[in-house]
Amino acid sequence: MTTIGIIGAGQIGAQLARISTDAGYDVVLSNSRGPETLADLVAEIEARPSRQGSIRAATATEAGEAGEVVVVTVPLKNLADVPVEPLAGKTVIDTNNYYPERDGHIAELDEETTTTAEMAQRHLPTSTVVKAFNHIYSEHLTSKRTATGTEHRRALVIAGDDADAKAWVAGYIDAIGFDTFDVGPLAEGWRIQRDTPGYGPEFDVEQLREATAQAKRYRDM
User: What is the pTM of this model?
Assistant: First the structure.
């Protein structure tokens, strides 16, 4: 089974560690404060009766090296701290959103000349970035997952420039409990950013299709 490296053990990272190990993936989890600070979380995940995969704590570099696929789930303001070389040649799942009150104002995002996922791809030029997990409340990752084929199953948007990478991420999302709606290339990731119709609600594929089609740029709101 694939090893998932997770860089960032906040709300999204911790929940992904839980449900990924439930689905049989091995997880190497990291944060900015050091592996020793993750001991309680690792112990909690190891004790889960639903766990099928392994879990261990590591540094961000080690998580990047160990992961066959790597999730980057750090505040946008800390994107520059994500190690580049360990992620080379790998699919990287970017979960980020832009919150000026947290990240400070970033001119190119304020001007809407790029997106957060494109910024991640620029920082990781030798990786293949796929946008995912940025429009679901973290607790819903565990509480709203359902089996494949469930009627009106909760769906999550992905965006990316590489079809093979997106196909892998879609399969992973299915394995952890959700359907997928592909909104297109990274440049279209703005359609599921904060304040858009699809950001937050529990939508299935068809509802997400409609919501992302209705999304407007901030300048047009």
Answer: 0.96
